[in-house]
Amino acid sequence: MAQKQIYLDHAATTPVAPAVFRKMQPYFNQKYGNPSSIHGLGQTAAQAIEKARQQIAVFLNCLSEEIHFTAGATESDNWIIWGLVEKLRFQESINPHIITSAIEHKAILEPCQVLLKKGLIRLTILPVNSNGLVSLEDLKKAIKKDTRLVSIMYANSEIGTIQPISQIGQLIKKLNPKRKHPIIFHSDAVQAANYLDCSVDKLGLDSLSLSGHKVYGPKGVGLLYVKKGVKLSPLIRGGGQEKGVRSGTENVPGIIGLAEAVSRINQNNKELKKLRDKLITGVLRDINQVELNGSFKDRLPNNANFSFKGAEGESIVLSLSAKGVFTSTGSACASHSLSPSHVMLALGLSHEQAHASVRFTLGQQTTSQDIDYLLKILPGIIARLRKISGR
Amino acid sequence: MYNKKVLDHFQKPKNMGKLKNPDVVAEVGNMQCGDIMRLYIKVKDDKIKDISFETMGCVAAISTSSMITELAKGKTLAQASKITFQDVVGELGELPPVKMHCADLAVKALRKAIKKYQGNKD
Ligand SMILES: Cc1ncc(COP(=O)(O)O)c(C=O)c1O
Ligand code: FES
User: How far apart are the C-alpha atoms of A101 and A187, rounded to whole Å?
Assistant: First the structure.
């Protein structure tokens, strides 16, 4: 019998939903025209893209022209930062102040760090408390006269904590009319989109990133929502697609898939949360010296993240993998840089705790039996690794 | 990511756990990733008569620990201190480049244990 495969790594990526896949297929080899071509086949593709934009506009509750397709959320995050900084330098010759948080995805933190090193911005990185949440008070205090961008992720990819985005949005909305220059409020909503309200006006967002492959759509496609009136320099220059702001022949099947995936998001969180809570309760009950990382309350319904004292994350992940259960870790051993996850450290975890962290992210196909199976094998795996470590 | 031999040593490590009445215990840690390796040895007639390990670390750290105990067992102290991390990696077949330091750690642990033993003796 083939081994069971239980995928509990939906924060890393999700499978393309069959209906999404079916919608994409014709755009590979039947409706394969280039949307910039003026002939019939090209126009079919161009119209499909516009329809996709409208579908997504419904989800974000925005204008379709405010949506720009990209090659993924990494590009979207890079674009809002570089695009804004470059625009401000060009128009006002200033080096703006940017505020972000310590637990952002690297797609936000890396561009900020590079711009800081080049001396092109000033940067405040807000800490998070031990629950993994930024504080509104800290943010208020950090805002300066020349603050032009606040970028706070909606939900964290490692610990699933949900930031108070609409409260931050309200604060910025209140401050902006009194300011000489408004603050742009961006949120990376990649992990949140499956589960949380993404109406940009309700949240008070000027900009937002999404990624196809986290919402049961394809990889390599995403979008940046930019509120009308906010001016950005292009990040990718060339043939002037996307009204000149994002060049490159459109990834037509990807865009169709992204739109279909987004319009199928149902945010039926209850069932998922029940399974996730069963997992958390079971782990805390059956294994000693284990801690849940990040807030239990302000947390995505599909995320659980633990540190198992005396067992290393990569070893746990590969032991689980050998039994067909797929998860991930914030351990230094499993990272390219051999440094522990910046999110774990920002929570105030010790290197040892970060070393011992494992993330479980559930998804549409996760069943109660899957959780039973995991709870059956996990205590033995942890016990074995603890025996090896002598701790 | 890892070959079968590495995974075998990870799943069924040799000489794992504490040793009763060891002649020396040596512990080394890797500041970079936070991993800790402890070697226990018993020496008789200048030879490593028994050896075991405890390792809190990744798959590579555990399998190189297992491998180095196999390589060192029965060797004279002089022979054992000549074991290099290339020897360990060579026996395992291969390791991902970022994991070479795990094999190096195993070697450091063994050399530290031998030095400590020789120091104790004088
Ligand atoms: C919060 C967050 N932002 C950005 C990204 C990057 O998205 P993409 O893979 O589409 O570039 C990810 C995915 O890893 C993510 O989890
Ligand atoms: S023990 Fe950390 S990378 Fe091997």
Answer: 11
* Interface residue of B16, B33, B102 to substitute, partner A, most A CBs within 10 Å: B33
Residue A69 near residue A255, CB atoms below 8 Å: yes
Which residue of A315, A333, A391 is in closest CB contact with B33? A333
- Chain pair A-B, CB pairs under 8 angstroms: 70
Question: Which residues is B108 bridged to in the sheet?
Answer: none
CA dihedral for B58, B62, B67, B72, sign (positive or negative): positive
Task: Pick the closest to residue A160 from A264, A318, A9 (CA basis).
Answer: A9
Dihedral of CA atoms A333, A338, A339, A342 in degrees, nearest 10, equals: -80
Average pLDDT, chain B: 93
Asked whether the predicted pLDDT for residue B114 surpasses 60, the reply is yes
Residue type, position B66, single letter? S
pLDDT of residue A191: 98
Q: How many other C-beta atoms are found inside a 10 Å radius of the C-beta of residue A360?
A: 26
Indicate the number of domains in chain B: 1
| Spans of chain A below 50 pLDDT | none
Q: What is the pTM for the complete model shown?
A: 0.95
pLDDT exceeds 90 at position B17: yes
Sign of CA pseudo-dihedral A66, A200, A185, A107: negative
pLDDT > 90? residue B88: yes
Question: Would you say A124 and A177 are in contact if contact means Cβ atoms under 8 Å apart?
Answer: no
Residue A111 tokens, joined: 């561009």
Q: Quick one: CA dihedral A150, A154, A157, A158, positive or negative?
A: positive
Domains and CATH numbers, chain A: 6-15+268-389 (3.90.1150.10), 18-263 (3.40.640.10)
Nearest CA residue ID for atom 2, ligand 2: A333
Residue A141 buriedness (CB in 10 A; 0-12 / 13-18 / 19+): exposed
Distance CA A152, CA A136 (A): 11
For ligand 2, the distance from its centroid to the CA atom of residue A98, given in whole angstroms, is 35
CATH number, position B109:
3.90.1010.10
- Is the shortest distance between the CB of A165 and ligand 1 below 6 Å? no
**What is the rounded CA–CA span in Å between residue A264 and residue A257?**
11
- The number of beta carbons lying within 10 Å of the beta carbon of residue A326 is 15
Q: Beta-strand (E) ranges in A33-117?
A: 67-70, 97-101
CB contacts of A334 in chain B (<8 Å) are 58
**Which two tokens mark A75?**
């590009």
Distance between CA A6 and CA A4 in Å, rounded? Answer: 6
Rounded to the nearest angstrom, the minimum Cα separation between B97 and chain A is 10
Q: Which residue has the tokens 């499993």?
A: A334
Q: Which pLDDT score is estimated for B32? A: 65
Q: Which residues of A75-94 are buried (b: 16+ CB within 10 A; e: fewer)?
A: bbbbbbbbbbbbbbeeeeee
Strands A325-326 and A6-7: parallel
